[in-house]
Amino acid sequence: MSGRPAATRLEGMDKRIAFFGAPLLVSVYGLVRIADGFDGERGPGLAWTTGHLAFLGALALFGVVLWEARRLAGGGTFATGTTVVGFVGIMFAMAQFGIDIVIGSLATDHADMAGMFQDVRTVPGLDLAVYDAGPPLFYLGLLVAVVHLAAVRAVPAWSPVAVVFGVLASMVELDLLPLAGLLMLAAFAPLARPVPSLARA
Length: 201
What we know:
Number of domains: 1
Largest sheet: none
Distance between the termini: 37 Å
Number of strands: 0
Helix content: over 70%
Number of helices: 8
Mean pLDDT: 88
Shape: globular
């Protein structure tokens, strides 16, 4: 029987869920998205909503990943700033996917959904913040966090490379999201091991 306190064991379990769950949910979203397009168009319907909910879950878990990455990097101004940038990106990405889910729920068919998206994206500033400039901050924060962890040897040197290829794969073709999720899973798997936080300089 382990002598570790129950709270410590639970904390470790929660972190493992985040490090493995976040990238796996990205892959789930990618697979559901591919399946949703088998009929030639995506949404509205159960597949659209299910996939988007999966990615919302991934974003929430990535928030845990970013926070834990900050701790493992020893805290400090740089690590905290990186986490804040990532959190801001997550907020905008969640807003985007929230809008997608609402429109998918209200639309009667794909044409109706397309019209709703066009109306939403004409709102001044919304298109830039929620669809263009905002969400990339999440990827930026995530990549910088992993590079920082590699610099302090909390993760292998190839972890940032896997994240870069994962992000690039999702940017080149959304159908590559299942692969992107697996690459991120490989990158974050070492973080699931108990690693002591570094002392602040």
